[in-house]
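Complex 332.
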Amino acid sequence: MKRTVSFSQDSTNVFFHILTNCNLKCRYCYINRAQHGDITLPLTTINAWLNTFADQNKGANLVFLGGEPTLHPKLPAAIKTASRLGYGSITVDTNGYLFHDILFKVHPDEVDYFSFSLDGAARSTNDRIRGAGCYDTCIAGIKEAVSRGFSASLIYTISSVNIDELELLGTLLEDLPIDRCFFQVIGIRGRSKAKQRDKLQVSRSEWLEKIPAAAEQIAQLGITVTYPRVFLAPSEPFQCAGQVAENYFIFPNGRVYQCPLCEDFPVHSLFIKDNQLMETESINEKDLFQLEIPEGCVMNKLIQPGNLCYSEDGTPLHKVGCCLLKEEISYK
Ligand code: SF4
Ligand code: SF4
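Predicted structure with iron/sulfur cluster bound:
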């Protein structure tokens, strides 16, 4: 079954960066410590903020992120708090190093997914981006998590560096015990912004030629594949998740964004003060969400216009959809 996962007013997603520290220094890391600080939140604060969001959003889907969230020694306790508070699902995004014996300190009933990041299907490509040894560690982490009864998913961030390895990714996944695969599109933010000469963005024609086909191939293995639409025809409807959905990207310095493309700038629409969620004053990301432009996503045009193209009279040849608008293929 193939479907567009439309934004839903009924589901809320909470992406909680509990620290920004990481053991890796990935070449295209999206974390911007100048904007989000280097605090590791104490457990009391994590619990209080989990409470704040659980109160306002019953059954929200929660993702723990970092930096590397398993570097936080209190992650197991935070997971148990979230589980008690009734979050609809709990995911831990990890680079695969699985610090502090996390797999021994939480139960498979408490974590819906450990989601592992891989940026190349070939060891050499992945390790060139993420660092020596990361490929083997990630694969070993997936196998260990699944052997202990957890479900594992894979996050593969597509860029010009690794888009040619999708066939190889399909071969790799034939032998890996994952049941979900998320393609993400690389954002020109964080460290990617400083690496613009790597020309990371993928053209529309290359994306359309390769991504749906690769998703189909991997879905045939019984793996649910999710990927962003990215390019919309001029006639297709455009919606900004910031206007019609509930997504919260929480950082340890208290900033809360509703759009991930805004995270490089102090334009967050919300912040947490004394454990309460407050609104920031204009001008903030919410003002940007309301702008209607023929190119679709306003933030895309502002920070990564390289993926737009125009006819001779200046009309955009396509729109760029919201990065949170996904297509999902599943044959389960
Ligand atoms: S991309 Fe993730 S794993 Fe890599 S350095 Fe950044 S936070 Fe760490
Ligand atoms: S990515 Fe674009 S369309 Fe999506 S929430 Fe951000 S500004 Fe809105």
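The CA atoms of residues 121 and 168 lie 6 Å apart.
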